[in-house]
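Good morning,

Attaching, inline, the backbone tokens for the sequence recovery test we're adding to the shared suite. The designed sequence is right after.
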């Protein structure tokens, strides 16, 4: 858990937002604990873990659709008000930009940029062709760039 929790949290934060990521991480490790005996080793452990994480993210996103208060922004950290405010604004903008992407692009970009997975690993994990994964990531990055530029976020 100590080894994989940061990567699981990054992936979850990219998919469901930083405020809901902790709950998703908890669900992921509960699911891993329950299913670990059934892990056959047909795939790498990290690939299996990413799939469980994606399933938990999709479940959290589906549950959020039924709640009227699903898009409550995460409060800023209390330590440095200026820095925390800047980080919170940037995090909120990035979360909103990711949320604006189609689900398949958001998933591919999040796995690549936040999960650090290679294109081939993403293809195996999502069941998409390698070219499709590359296309989704390219389109997703372009859409993120356009959305963030339109929101006034500078690189």
């Amino acid at each position: 858990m100590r080894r994989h929790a940061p990567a699981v949290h990054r992936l979850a934060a990219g998919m469901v937002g930083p405020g809901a990521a902790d709950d998703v991480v908890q669900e992921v490790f509960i699911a891993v604990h329950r299913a670990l005996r059934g892990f056959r080793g047909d795939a790498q452990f990290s690939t299996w873990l990413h799939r469980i994480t994606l399933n938990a993210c999709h479940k959290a996103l589906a549950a959020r659709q039924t709640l009227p208060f699903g898009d409550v922004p995460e409060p800023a950290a209390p330590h440095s008000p200026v820095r925390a405010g800047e980080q919170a604004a940037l995090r909120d903008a990035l979360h909103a930009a990711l949320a604006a992407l189609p689900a398949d692009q958001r998933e591919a970009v999040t796995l690549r940029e936040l999960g650090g997975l290679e294109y081939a690993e993403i293809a195996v994990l999502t069941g998409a062709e390698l070219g499709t994964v590359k296309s989704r990531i390219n389109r997703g990055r372009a859409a993120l760039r356009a959305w963030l530029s339109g929101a006034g976020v500078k690189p």
